[in-house]
Amino acid sequence: MEQQRLSKRMLVMAGCLLMALATYAQDSSRHVFSIKQAVDYAHQHNVQIKNSLLDVALQQQQNREITAAAFPQLNGSVSGTYNPNIAVQVIPDFIAPSTYKVLTDAGVNDGSGNPIVAPSSYGVIAAQFGTKFNALAGIDLNQILFDGQVFVGLQARATSLLWRKKNSEVTEEMIKTNIYKVYYQLVVSKTQIQLLDANIERLNKLLNDTREIYKNGFAEKLDVDRVLVQLANLETEKAKALNSISNGYYGLKVLMGMPVAHELILTDSLSEEEIKSGVLNTGEYAYEDRKEYQFAGLGRKLNEFNVKRYQLSQIPTVSLAGNYSKSAQRSKFDFFGKGQWFTVSSINLRISVPIFNGFAAKARIQQARIELMKSDNEIESLKLSIDNEVAVARNDLKTAIGTMDYQKKNLELATTVYDQTKKKYEIGTGSQTEINTAQTDLKTAQTNYINALYDAIIAKVDFQKATGKL
After folding, report:
1. In whole angstroms, what is the distance from residue 464 CA to residue 315 CA?
2. How far apart are CA 10 and CA 5, in angstroms?
3. What residues contact 329, with CB distance under 8 A and at least 6 apart?
4. How far apart are CA 159 and CA 28, in angstroms?
5. Helix (H, G, I), strand (E, B), or coil: what is residue 113?
6. What is the pLDDT of residues 369-401, one digit of tens each?
7. What is the dihedral of CA 377, 379, 381, 386, to 10 degrees?
8. 153 with 69: CB under 8 angstroms?
9. Are the C-beta atoms of residues 458 and 409 closer than 8 Å to each other?
10. C-alpha 368: how far from chain center
11. Are 212 and 427 in contact (CB under 8 A)?
12. What is the CA radius of gyration of the chain?
């Protein structure tokens, strides 16, 4: 009995665990985001942003490599050599002259009884120098004491890292701009669907009224069919709008780096007042607020370091090198046994003075200066481009807001006209043609209003980006 109870408890616990896991999996694929949360999500998941952040990490490692050039370089080495055939060296016979001198001084005769006479040439001796087995173990130390190019590289590390970070910020701002546009367009699309639903509701009511009038003999069957056609067209338009919105959500997910299968719910809303709030009061702007301008300035500074690096390549460099090693020679491979090891050590101070390199250094300096001049030109061109972007964006935003206000009033007027026309139609003083015309005008006014909202959102985002305030 106790075992059965234990088994039931385990089954209940397992079921609860599976339900918790299922709930977690469901929640992890459901995202309820404000615009800020959407941007933060993209910061972590968008591939372009992630790669730009990896470029920052890459630059950090490159800076470590540059720093390593200023530290001592220590290397150990062990080598062994086996000589199956020891090299033969031919040298003059330096033994025979002494031997002949002793014999001639002593008056020694040869086998025939004749005095030994030194020959005119003593020939050569074929001698082998070395042993079958050689071993060498040592440590080498190298230290740069002064190198202008290395020192400039050390100075440029911080700027290089900032340049990479700023490039990442430029990439992130580009993605952020697109997310803002798509996000708020999808927010406005809710208004589009609401207007379509309102139109469908109106037509359904008009259809019911027209059918009643037809039953009473005050309308034709053709009038009913016309309303049915209009209703079918609206239902088709709504289906297309919903499909377009669904595709917009897919595009936003891809832009954010979110799996397409995940559910995304947008929480922010947007009104005409929010679109108009505070964006036109700022007449002044600063180039330094633009990420692209900051990035270009850092690029110019790197080019300055490049000029300095090539200039310092023409001054002497000083380095210190040291070596300590042990060597042994054996006729047999017995290095791990007893035997003598000989010590070799050296310390070397080297001063390298550039004298003539075919004017290569001068050419590199001029190339770096030209690149610096190009950076200055690009910065000036960027200023002009920013001025143009701000001017155009300000004009577009003013026009878009004016159009939005105008279309809002036009929509209200078209709604009033439709309502009045419908009342006339209901009491029998209006015609089917009038109500159809009013419905068409209302639909046109709604479409124009939605397009004006879209344009105003895009214009606002473009203006904020142009002034560096996004």
Report:
1. 50
2. 9
3. 130, 131, 133, 134
4. 40
5. coil
6. 999 999 999 999 999 999 999 999 989 999 999
7. -170
8. yes
9. no
10. 26
11. no
12. 45
Does 11 score more than 60 pLDDT? no
| 361, 296 Cβ separation under 8 angstroms | no
3-state helix, strand, coil in the chain (%, to 5): 65, 15, 20
Dihedral sign from CA coordinates of 92, 95, 98, 101: negative
Q: Is the pLDDT of residue 80 over 80?
A: yes
Which amino acid, 262? H
Distances (CA, A) of 365 to 147, 302, 372, 414: 17, 14, 11, 71
- pLDDT for residue 282: 58
DSSP 112: T
Joined together, the tokens standing for residue 313 give 């390549």
Q: What are phi and psi of 313, to 5 degrees?
A: -70, -10
Q: Point out which residues pair with 282 in neighbouring strands.
A: none
Give the SS3 label for residue 342: strand
Please state, in angstroms and rounded to a whole number, the distance separating the CA atoms of residues 274 and 289: 23
The stretches of 69-156 forming alpha helices (DSSP H) are 96-106, 148-155
What three-state secondary structure class fits 72?
coil
In the numeric block, the tokens 């639909």 are attached to 443
Give the 3-state DSSP-derived string for 269-319, with helices as H, strands as E and coil as C: CCCHHHHHCCCCCCCCCCHHHCHHHHHHHHHHHHHHHHHHHHHHCCCCEEE
Tokens coding 49: 């942003």
Dist. CA 163–CA 295, nearest whole Å: 6
**CA distance linking residue 421 with residue 450, whole number of Å:** 23
Instruction: In whole angstroms, give the CA distance from residue 58 to residue 51.
Output: 10
| Burial readout 148-173 (b: 16 or more C-beta within 10 A, e: otherwise) | bbbbbbeebbeebbbbbbbbbbbbbb
Q: Range with the lowest mean pLDDT among 16-20, 208-212, 397-401?
A: 16-20
Tokens of 452: 């004006």
Give the C-alpha separation, 47 to 256, whole Å: 9
| 132-184 per-position pLDDT tens digit | 888 999 999 999 998 888 999 999 999 999 999 999 999 999 999 999 999 99
Angstrom distances, CA of residue 139 to CA of 69, 74, 325, 342: 18, 7, 6, 14
Instruction: Give the phi and the psi of residue 261 in degrees, each rounded to 5.
Output: -75, -15
Determine if the pTM surpasses 0.90. no
Cα 250–251–252 angle (5° rounding)?
90
What residues have CB less than 8 Å from 354, skipping those under 6 apart? 313, 314, 315, 316, 361
Per-residue pLDDT reduced to its tens digit, 33-72: 999 999 999 999 999 999 999 999 999 999 999 999 899 9
How many Å apart are CA 326 and CA 334, to the nearest integer?
15
Instruction: Decide if pLDDT at 17 tops 50.
Output: no
